[in-house]
Each structure stands twice: as C-alpha cells, then as structure tokens.
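Q: Please design a sequence for this.
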C-alpha cells in the first residue's frame, strides 16, 4: 500500500505510567460531553444565547485573580494536566450516529472538534487554582501545529480513548500533546497524535495572561519539553521563510519556470510567434484554477464556544469536510486524511458571521493531494472580507491522481504559482514527519 504509517511521537510508556501514577484513577473515564460541560463550569459560560452578554460581564470581576508575573504562579508537572477521556462508540451505540460517515467509518471532522475541546480542558487543568471554582483565564486555540494519523480507517463501533497533557509552556502559551487510541481485541491501538498550541488571555479575552510554569521531572519529560522549544523555533523559521515575506528559492524558481516551459503551446508558425499567453495543459494534468471548491456557512449560536465566539473545532470540521470534498472531486476516488498541519487561528469568528470557505488543490504527487482551505468572514453591512484561518490538509487517494498545474505567465510568479510552491513546502514537511 502507498499509505505510510506515521511514527507515533507519543509519550514513552514509562512516562505514560508516570503521568497516571498518583492520580485518583476512577473505573469510569469521563466522556466528551462531560469535557464540554466541565469547560462551561470553569468559565461560567451561559447555556442560553440571550444571556451571553451578562455572562461575559460577570467574568470582568475575575480580573483581580490574574497573576501580575509568571513567577507568582506555582509551577506544575506534566502529570498534573494529564487527562484520559473516553468516546464510547462501541459501548454506547446511541452516540454513534453523530460520528458516522457514509463509508461507515468515523467522521474525522468530529474528531477535530473533540481534540480542540480536550486541548482547552487540559490547559485549564494545568492552570487550575485550587480555591477558585472559576478560572480568570480565557484559554483559546492559537495553532494546530500538526496532527498525524497512522490508521486509514477509524472504526465507528469501537471505543476511542483520548489522552493528553501540557508538554511545554512559555509565558502566556502552552503546547498540548494529545493521542487518540481505539479499542481492538481488548487493547487500545494508536490512531493519531496531535500537537496544539493554546494561549491564555484575560477574562474578557483581550490581553495575554500569564500561565503556570512547567517543571519536567525526568529525562523523558526533559526531552518532551525540549521538543516543545524546538517546535516553537521551527514555527518561527517556517514563518520567516514564508513566500509572503521572502522570494522563492533558486530551486523553487526553477520548478516554476520548468512548469511554464512545459505548458507553452508551441504549435504555431515558427518559434518567434510563440506567446506567453499561448498555453496547453500537459497530459494527465489539471489547471489549478479548475481544482477548487467553495462553501458558505452561516454561523449560528449553536456553534459558539464558551466565550460566545464560533467554536474553533467547528471551523476545523467545516474546513476539513470542504477539503475532503475537494480532494474527492479532484481524485475521483475516496481520499484518506494522513496529516493536518499549521492551522493558525488569526481572527475570531463572531456569531452571526457569514463564513466563506475556499478549498484549493495546491500540490499533487502520485496518490497524494495537498489541500489548502482559506476561511474568511464577510460583513454584509460593510462588504468587508477578513481572513480568519488557513488550513492545510494532506490526503492520500485510492488511485494515482492527475498532476495539478499552476498557470504562470511571462516568467513571473502568479498567485497560483505561489500556492503551488507553498503546498509543495507543506507536503515535503509532512513527508519528513511520517
């Protein structure tokens, strides 16, 4: 099979045992509905949309509980934030319908929602103040660094277990590592691992707020913490080298120029009559402009998070589903997700927004399809558009797919060429990981 198993970067078994030891292990693990209920309790979120303004006003009083310096907060250990949560698809068939897709496997978009909720709760567990039932912090998802899968199929009739803990801490941000396993034959087998970055803000979600420092307790934990530092540096390097800031490398310029030469239509009288505008599509190829899908979502109160903005997990689910549909339409066969990376939450989405999603095939190689989904909100009153997220998904198709080709012109770099190179960069980074 062309599908490659990823190397799971999960906690070493020794460390996993360390994290669970000393915790009050209960015979019944909490489920995802309890995770969301717990989050509402921690923040004091309203259960009725009409009460949301009052609930947010009440949070203002929590300002006095914020630390003035990080040094004033007690340090925490990795095992202090370690959580295990069950998704009982096998033992509670009544919840299965919500997670089921037409191929009789689990909807990955729902898993993205669950990971987002769990990541936030893990961070609230790390920052918990013993004497305070409500947290003064507004903890929100800043970035999905990466999610790598090592199973093509997530079965809809077997229990799923999520585990996770805070793995690295800055002044106001936290990295969370989560793992998902599924029960087969009495044992839990790895399905995916995920790395999220969360940020802490004040009670009104306006300014950064300090979080408890993290103290590694063993060589394994030191290694995980060090990896968190490296992840941060990698993100800075990747951002610094962005095509929005720097010109393509010499190798990338050659790639674009080769594509340009290979798509020139030379079937004319004499070489001197060849025009930059005369283009032909190579065999088994598709122009990038013909490899996209669009969608619109009205953001209802039902999809709000505990801070009465649109839930980040919902945005991820909608973007993933459009990305999957784009890959399915392009490859004319069922695509399987193998990686999600570099999802930056640039701007919150307000309830009532018109959310415009655009899915684009950016790069292809053999059976692989790299999809970029651009998310923006449209204000009907001002007619303004604002980007909220960029999503990157790597799929593998059942069959080899056509080559996607950007239209370049005049030896210069078009928007499509930049998208192509950016997609190639993301694909190359994913292939190094798995």
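A: Design:
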């Amino acid at each position: 099979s062309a599908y490659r198993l990823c190397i799971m970067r999960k906690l070493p078994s020794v460390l996993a045992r360390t994290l669970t030891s000393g915790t009050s292990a209960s015979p019944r693990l909490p489920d995802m509905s309890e995770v969301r209920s717990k989050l509402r309790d921690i923040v004091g979120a309203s259960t009725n949309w009409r009460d949301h303004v009052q609930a947010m006003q009440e949070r203002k009083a929590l300002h006095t509980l914020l630390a003035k310096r990080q040094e004033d907060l007690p340090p925490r250990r990795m095992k202090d934030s370690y959580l295990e949560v069950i998704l009982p698809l096998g033992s509670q068939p009544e919840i299965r319908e919500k997670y089921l897709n037409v191929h009789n496997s689990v909807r990955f978009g729902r898993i993205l929602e669950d990971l987002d909720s769990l990541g936030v709760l893990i961070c609230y567990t790390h920052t918990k103040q013993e004497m305070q039932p409500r947290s003064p912090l507004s903890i929100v998802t800043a970035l999905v660094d990466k999610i790598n899968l090592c199973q093509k199929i997530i079965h809809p009739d077997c229990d799923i277990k999520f585990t996770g803990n805070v793995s690295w801490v800055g002044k106001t941000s936290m990295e969370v590592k989560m793992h998902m396993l599924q029960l087969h034959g009495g044992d839990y087998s790895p399905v995916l691992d995920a790395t999220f970055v969360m940020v802490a803000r004040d009670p009104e979600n306006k300014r950064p707020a300090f979080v408890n420092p993290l103290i590694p307790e063993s060589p394994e934990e030191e290694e995980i913490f060090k990896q968190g530092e490296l992840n941060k540096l990698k993100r800075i390097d990747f951002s610094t080298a962005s095509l929005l800031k720097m010109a393509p490398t010499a190798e990338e310029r050659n790639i674009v120029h080769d594509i340009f030469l290979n798509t020139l239509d030379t079937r004319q009288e004499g070489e001197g009559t060849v025009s930059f505008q005369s283009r032909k599509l190579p065999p088994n190829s598709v122009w990038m402009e013909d490899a996209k899908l669009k969608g619109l979502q009205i953001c209802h109160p039902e999809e709000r998070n505990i801070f009465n903005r649109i839930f980040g997990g919902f945005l991820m689910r909608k973007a993933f589903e459009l990305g999957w549909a784009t890959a399915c339409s392009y490859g004319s066969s069922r695509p399987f997700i193998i990686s999600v990376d570099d999802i930056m939450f640039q701007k919150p989405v307000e309830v009532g927004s018109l959310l415009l999603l655009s899915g684009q095939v950016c790069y292809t190689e053999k059976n692989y399809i790299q999809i970029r989904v651009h998310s923006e909100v449209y204000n009907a009153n001002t007619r303004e558009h604002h980007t909220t997220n960029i999503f990157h998904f790597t799929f593998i198709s059942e069959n080899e797919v056509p080559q996607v080709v950007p239209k370049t012109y005049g030896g210069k770099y078009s928007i499509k060429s930049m998208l192509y190179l950016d997609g190639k960069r993301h694909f190359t980074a994913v292939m190094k990981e798995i």
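Q: Thanks. Anything notable?
A: The radius of gyration is 23 Å. The CA atoms of residues 74 and 306 lie 26 Å apart.
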